[in-house]
Structures are given as structure tokens and as C-alpha cells.
Amino acid sequence: MEAVRFDNVKFSYEEDGQDYAVNGVSLSVEEGEFVAVLGRNGSGKSTLAKLINALLVPTEGKVTVFGMDTLDAKMTFEIRKNAGMVFQNPDNQTVASVVEDDVAFGPENIGVPREEIGKRIEFALDAVGMQEFRHATPSRLSGGQKQRVAIAGVLAILPKIMILDESTAMLDPRGRREVMEVIKRLNRERGMTVILITHFMDEALQADRAIVMHRGEAVMDGPPEEIFARSEELETYNLTLPRAAAVCKALQAAGMPVNNAFTAEELAEAICASLQRG
Amino acid sequence: MLNDVTFGQYYPAKSFVHNMDPRAKIVLVIAFIVAIFLAKNFFGLAAVFAALVFMVLLSRVPFGRVLRSIKMILFVIVFTAVLNLFFYAGESAYEPLVDWWIFTITYESVVNMVFLALRLFLLVMGTSILTLTTTPVALTDGIESLLTPLKWIRFPVHELALIMSIALRFIPTLTDETNRIIAAQKARGADFESGGLIKRAKAMLPVLIPLLVSAFRRAEDLGDAMDARCYSGAKGRTKYKKLVFSWRDLLGLLFLGGLITGIVFLNLYLGGKFDIIGQIASLF
Amino acid sequence: MRIVAKGLTYTYDPKSPFASHALNGVDLTIEEGEFYGIIGHTGSGKSTFVQHLNALIRLTGGSLRVGDYDLADKKCKFIELRSKVGMVFQYPEYQLFAETVEKDVAFGLKNFRKDMGEEERAAAVREALETVGLSYAEMEGRSPFELSGGQKRRVAIAGVIVTKPEVLILDEPAAGLDPLGKQELMELLHRIHGGWCKTVVIVSHDMDEIAENCTRAAVFSEGRVAMEGTPAEIFARSEELFALGLDVPVTARCALLLKERGIGIETDYTCRDFADKVLALWRAKEGGHAQ
To answer: Are both B30 and B127 inside the same structural domain?
Structure first.
């Protein structure tokens, strides 16, 4: 089933402005897909994310979430129930001073009965591996833990789509790893549709599909391996290759016959195969 | 450092008082204040004091910790007391003790000063038991719940409570941020310690402006995050946490009820505060 | 300026129930001229350590000398020290405050060089802005708050380097930037390094960044220095880094995997050197075949 659809969407932050942050994007995301959206800062990728759950509505064109038009104000609530969103700064999205109260915030908003909220808190904290912190204070947690609580807060609304707007950008490597593991598991085990906005190339590699944004347009769209194989094109959009892929490319440029590799593991594999061949 | 939800005064412990319903505690503190102001003579205040000691023992908060809350407003107590000593306007039945220039000290003004100081002391101690044994979060919940009837006159109870709880939530974040900005400006040679009041206030601008900008940015982010989690005001909203009124709270209310009744009797039986000697005599 | 720390200890909130030991005896020497990397988890003590270097955190245990400044000495000229040891905090753009870029960048000068004339100051601001790759003419009168994220960060860095500190410390300078932004920032630091700025110290989580840019590095763990050396020396001990819960550069991970398969590569773990060494192996093998 089609989860998200953009039809020639344009969006400008200025009223009757010609400066489009998103400029004519058409795309479609199927339910259960894991999509990474790449692009430089200011390329329009965060705007794209906010257009999905009606935090912003298109200036031109149409965005639908499971067939619901985001321009239809009556549908806003229903759209947000289906498409949850986690933001960049882990400190700016918690409303309560106790973890479980914060996770309860969403279900409370949509009027879930009290007993059911308790169950949802349990489920959501379990899904992100934060059960033992149920009564903890968010300000005392690490960045990665805070973001996992934020994800739990969204999960408790039981959405079908999870949008992460640069949610790993402010985390240290350990925190990033924690968050990536959680969202991969959600995607794999629960069939959650994941839309991950990021500028970490190695995170994009873990997705099924990558979309590159440049000056408000979706300029590349395909499996990450395919996208990273088109390195010259990527460079024109001011994006760099994942480091392992860059090394691999250097080897190929010097004439060494190695297969395309994007991660350290693949690179070791490729080098090994090439050295032991013949 | 305000570095925790337990900021301010909260003293973590497990006790009868800690376990009480915050609503009951708020009501109790109000009753306690009423008792203080009902008491017309020193014996009434002595009864209130005895009740206070009992409550502190029950709360397992060390006396030193409770007394510390007095320190902050000691100045206010002394100041009001001294004013009362010199400018007591009531009639005096005795010769003035001191009569110099505009200052007159009479027996009544001395008694009055002591009485007032004791009242203020008891007031601060009583309310600090509430803040020492109740987390700010629980306090907010309690206030929200107690204010619920005001919804009938369209008072935004839910919004008020939400604002309070978000403010509490952001205190540690903004404190950290303030410390960071101060350090950064110090690294650029900012001097917050020397100079007069105006110079120092001016020196704070490089801290206050970024802090304000950041608070607005955070508020905007938070607004988006709340929208994304389907927030749309109090309508149709449920509440996860429910406060439970227990036997402890009932006992507490009965106790304070007893105290107030006792004070009323002491007032009727012994009369005002000035006739201390007569009152002591009448007890025997 | 040479930095020598011996037995540095520091405790946050001493005597409170929340007391935490941030530094547990740090011994570390940073020679003048290094491009030094400091690695470690959040909470490993690395930020506390660097804040000691310009006396933002006062010494409470151990000894610390920065150049001729003895920070244990109560009479040490701390303000003068701060003008020589510049510090760029994480997300420095959040500390901008003045109405114009000009005034914001000049803030440090006005504090440290009170005797400096208008013209001289303007010239210094111009130089600082140009060093970070911004045009003085375009920027000077604008409000720092209306700039893009990347420009704000540059302005903030200009505000620190405007006094030409001999030692420049940066806490996660590239955090939140996109890959190209990161690359440009590192190029900027290399441009500064070696001129008036003799020593650069960066605190970073990004092992690739350390491997590519630093001449030496220290790994902090639980308030101590767990490892110290050149990136080549540190990343050759990948297993120990994993044990500390830290990452290694992609090149080091790859080298480790190759080693398991019997292919040894001696490299400094920069991408270029790693590729060169692999190519050398391949050419040797090809050569062997040709004969």
C-alpha cells in the first residue's frame, strides 16, 4: 500500500515568494519501506519531512498520507496519528520531567483510556529498550537514550510511519548506533515505514532506498548502493561518498580490479578477493 | 546547581509524608497557615509548633535541612520584626520601655514583635515541609487537580498545568545552556565579576541574548514536537497519572482538623497574646 | 606553548549526593605545534580537561602548565592566558549575541585588547572573517542571527581567532555540519595551524576525522588518559578501543579484517595512505605474476 505520496509539491517559507525550499517534488513511498533522504544543509530535506505530517502544507501540489490529503484540515489529526516524527535536538521534544509521563503525552492527546496508556508505555519503552528508565528524568539521560525516549513517545501513538528529521545529527557514535538499531528493528520486525533524514552517508547505506535532495528537488532516487556508485553525480550535489567507498574508488582509479564496496567489511572482502585472485 | 527534577528543595526520602497525596499536602499546608493565623496567644503557637515538630519527625527530613529554608528569608523576618518593634501603633497599658526621638518601645510592641516573628517562622517551616517532601512534578499535578473546579468558569487549568510542567522540565536544560554560554563568553574575555551594578548588568547581555534566542528556538521546536504528537489542547484529552487519596491523607486531614479545633479552644479559654502571666497562672 | 598536565583531578558538585569524578588523575603533555586530537565518550572527562586549559575550570587537584603559565598559582594571569588559549565550544553559533557580525567578532578584542584603536580593530576583524572564508564587506553590518547555520558557525569561530590565540581548542567543531561543511572546516583549521596558531586541539567523536587530521591524539576514558600517541599507534590497537566501547576509522576496521585473513597492512590510517599501501601490495603481487 502507498504510505506517502508527493505530487509535484512546491513549498515556500515566504508568502507569495518565489524562493522554494521544496521545488516540484514527486515521489511515492510504499508501506514498510526504509527510505533515507540525503542532502546538504538547506537542500530542503527537513522541509520535505515536515510536509509529510502536515506541520507544513504545500504551497502548490499535493501530499497524501495513506490517501489523506494534508491540505484537508479535518484530516490533520488522523495524519499525525499515522505519521509520527522524531526531531533533531533531543532536548527540545520532551514535555515532561519523567520518562513515562513523556511517553504518555501522545496517547493522552488522542484520548486513549488510562489503562490502555499504561500498556502502551510498556510496549513503547520495550521497543526502544528503555524499560528500566521508565521513572527516570530525561535530562539525566545520554543523548542516545533521550532520542530513544522520543521514539517511544511517537511509538505510543501507534503510527505506521516514522519520520526521523536528522535525529542522529547531535548524537555521539554510540548514541547514533543505538538509534539506528532501534529504527532498523522497527522497520524489520514491525514493518514500520521509516523515512530517515540524515547527512551521514553510512546511515543511508542501511536503508532500502535513498533520495538525494538538492536545492529543493529530489535529484536522485534508488537503492543506496546504486546512488553511491554514481559518485561524480553525487559530487555535483556537494555530497561525499562513505569513506570506504571513497577508498574503493581510489583503488579502482589506480587500476586495481576491486568490486564496488561501501562498508569496511565489503572493502576488506573486495581487497582480499582482488589480492588472492589469480 | 539546578541539575535535576529534584531541583529546589525536594529532599528524597521514604516517609509517611512523602507518600501522601500532593493535593492533601497542599490542603494541609493551607490548613496549617490558617492555624497559625487563628492562634491568638502563645499557647496556640506552641501547639502549632508541636504539630510542626511532629510533622518534621514524620517526614524524616533532618531538622537542619528544614531550618535551612529559614536562612533565605531570615532578613525579611528580622526586618518586619524590627519595624513592628519600633512602630507598633497599639495602646499600651504600661510605661514605655524606651522612648527616644520617634522610637517608642513598649511591652506590647515587644510581645507583638516576638509573636509576629514566631508566626513567620512557623509559616516558612510549614510550607517548606511541603516543598521538601513533594517533587515539583507532583506539586504541579496536585495544583492542577485542585484547580479543576475552576474549569467551570473557563479558567485554563490544563494549559496552566502544562506550562508549569514544561517550565520545570526545561529548568535543567536552560541551566546547562546558561553555564555553557557563560563559559564561552568568558573564553572570549568577558568579565562578569568586576565593576558596579550597571557594568555587571551590561556584562550579562552577551549571556542573556543568546539564552533568549535559544529559548525561542527551543520553544519553536517544542511546538512542532507537540503538534507532531497530536497535541490540540485539553479537549478530548485523557490523563495517565491519577492521584490517589489514601488513609494517610485522611489521617493528615484529621490531625490538622484537631489542631485547628484545639487552637480555637485555646483562644476562647485563654484570650489574647499580651496576658502571658495571667494565662500561665490560669493553667494551674 | 607546551601544555603539561600532571595528576589532574576534578569533581563536579563535591559533597553533594550527585558528586561525580570527572577527572581521575590526567597525565598528558601536548607539545607546541601539534594538531592534537582528544577522543572519548560523552562523560569521559575530555570536555572537563580542555576547559582547564584556559582556566574556565579552576585547577582543584594536580598541576597544569600552559607555556609559562602555572595554573596552580593563584596569581596566574588568567585573563591573559585566555587571550592566548582560544576555545571554540560545541555549536558555537549559539553564543552569538551582538547586533552586527562586526561587533560580535570584535567582542574578544574589546575585552582582551582594551588599548586597541578603532582602525586596528576593524582590520583584525576583517582578517578574522576572511580567514574563516567570509567577506568582510558583505558580513560586517549584518545581524548574525539572519545568517545560515554554516555562516553562523564561521562567524563564531572568527570571534575566537580574532585575538590570534597561540593555542586553539575546539570541542566537536564539525558537529551538525554536512560532509562538505565538515571538510571545509577541517581545511580552515589546517590553514590556521602553523601560522600564529601554533597548536590546535580538537575534541572529537569522529575517528575518521582524527585519523585524517591529527598528528597525535589521546583517548580519554573514565577521567584518565587510556591511550596516547600518533593516530597510527592508537588505531593499531583497535581491539583496545573496541573494549573501551569506541569506534575506529573505517580504514582501521578494514585493516583489522584483512589482518584476520593474513594480509598485513602498515598504514597511518588516512584514506590516502591506506589506499597507497593496498595498491603497493597489489602491484607487488602483479609484479610477482609478471615475472
So the answer is: yes
In a 3-state reduction of DSSP, which class is residue B1? Answer: coil
Residue B263 has phi, psi (to 5 degrees) of: -65, -40
- Cell triple for A24: 516540484
Q: With contact defined as beta carbons under 8 Å apart, do A147 and A138 qualify?
A: no
| pLDDT for the residue numbered B75 | 85
Q: Convert the pLDDT of each residue in C69-107 to its tens digit.
A: 999 988 888 889 999 999 999 999 999 999 999 999 999
Q: Do B240 and A137 touch (CB under 8 A)?
A: no
Q: DSSP label at B20?
A: S
pLDDT band at C230 (very low <50, low <70, confident <90, very high): very high
What number is the average pLDDT over the span C204-215? Answer: 94
Q: Identify the CA nearest to C33 among candidates C232, C212, C194.
A: C194
Nearest residue on chain B to C112, alpha-carbon basis: B189
- Band (pLDDT 50/70/90 cuts) for residue B89 is low
Cβ atoms within 10 Å of A221's Cβ, excluding its own:
14
Q: For CA atoms B7, B8, B12, B14, give the dihedral sign.
A: negative
pLDDT interval class at B281 (50, 70, 90): confident
Tell me the CATH architecture of domain A2-224.
Answer: 3-Layer(aba) Sandwich (3.40)
> Range of B80's domain?
22-145+244-283
Mean pLDDT of C244-258: 93
The distance of B135 to chain C (nearest Cα, Å) reads 17
What domains lie within chain C, and their CATH numbers?
3-231 (3.40.50.300), 249-291 (no CATH)
Instruction: Please say if the pLDDT value at position B163 is more than 80.
Output: yes
Chain B residues interacting with chain A (CB cutoff of 8 angstroms): 3-5, 136-137, 162, 165-166, 168-169, 172-173, 217-218, 221-222, 224-232, 236-242
Q: Which of C54, C57, C8 is nearest to C220 (CA)?
A: C8
DSSP β-ladder status, A161-165 and A193-197: parallel
Q: Return d(Cα A33, Cα B84) in angstroms, integer.
A: 76
Extract the residue ranges of chain A whose pLDDT is less than 70.
278
**pTM, rounded to two decimals:** 0.87
Of the CA atoms within 13 Å of residue A199, those in its CB half-sphere come to: 26
User: Mean of the per-residue pLDDT values for chain C?
Assistant: 92
User: What phi and psi, each to the nearest 5 degrees, are found at residue B180?
Assistant: -65, -45
> Domain segments of chain A: what residues?
2-224
Burial (CB < 10 A; 0-12, 13-18, 19+), residue A15, is exposed
Count of CB atoms situated within 10 Å of the CB of B95:
8
Regarding whether B263 and B130 lie in a shared domain, the answer is yes
Q: Parallel, antiparallel, or unpaired: how do β-strands A2-12 and A217-222 relate?
A: unpaired
With CB atoms and an 8 Å threshold, state whether A256 touches C278: yes
A93 touches chain B (CB under 8 A): yes
B138, containing H or E segment? helix B136-147
Q: How confident is the model over B94-142, as pLDDT tens digits? A: 777 777 777 778 888 888 888 889 999 999 889 888 988 988 888 888 9
ipTM: 0.91
B206 neighbors C107 (Cβ within 8 angstroms): yes
* Strand residue runs (E) in chain B: 98-100, 103-105
